[in-house]
Amino acid sequence: MTNYAHITGWGMSVPKLIITNDHLSQILDTTDKWIQERTGIQQRHIADHRETTASLASEAALRALRIANLLPKEIDLIIVATSTPEHIFPATACLVQDHIGAINAGAFDLSAACTGFIYGLNLATQSIRSGSIKNAIVIGSETLSRIVDWGDRDTCILFGDGAGAFVVQASDKPGGVRSAIMRSDGSGGDLLTLPAGGSALPASTETINRGLHYIKMNGREVFRFATRVMEKASREVVEKANLTLDDIALFIPHQANIRIIEAAAHRLNVPLDRFFINLQDYGNTSTASIPIATCEAIEKKRLSSGDYFIMVGFGAGLTWGAITGLWTGPFPTKRRMHISRYRRIAQLNSLFRRIWRRIEGLIWGRKNTT
Prior knowledge:
13 strands
């Protein structure tokens, strides 16, 4: 039996705090006009001290589960694509697993920069097609405001915070993700990087003083790379699916820069109105940009059941990729899932396990000292 991977739930979460271009012009040598002309961005959402990559991811995941009408315990796998994980370890996905009460799910983080959500969605799809799992949550979540230098005009104007999530489910009915490609070119790894904090440059007074814990980017080179691979990936993934560009109802690109999207549309000879664009409201949210854009496309009725779509992105690494498929939406069901009630019970169970782990530690500690 063939397993098809359908996207049956979607959700997004963004911080309430909004920083406009005018706000940035008060601390930087820039203007709203300058930023909009070069990027298309008007504002971005910025996390406060209570909001983290995991908290935004968890909220987006719960909203996706409500639409899919699934309980967290029915999820087999959680993938969090992020460049701003909660910690180097444990994985942010494990924290999400605990927060939402997905007690039967494996969980891991995926690092492929802005292309990470495409990679994660493809990996979940392949796991479903293989028959190893039935239900997955794929999340793109970022708090990029924590790693930008707010004195660097070339980077801080670009990025915003947020999360988006898909529920992906197995079905024997055709539809869902149809084809995908994942590509990389590590020779361009130095074009967009967070230099310090890993094993090559561990955190030290020197790395902090040199500002090496902030995003560094060669904007011109990244722009040239992006305009080239957005077209190439779109053509390749459509051909792999035995479709044509004319079959595609909606292109959902990574929301990095309006000029990159315009260049891709021109190279593909596709009208810009077939591309969904919302970067003016969110900036570049990296792994979260495609699922956030998808949520808004559905809300605005730009994507409906029966539509063929392309999701295409690029990022540091260098990485790029694309996915195409047939949008179907939630599976029909009469079940009513009380996710909020289930989550409260799951959180109590999590608290009990934490307390019991401490009790065990005290008991075994005493035994080992006698």
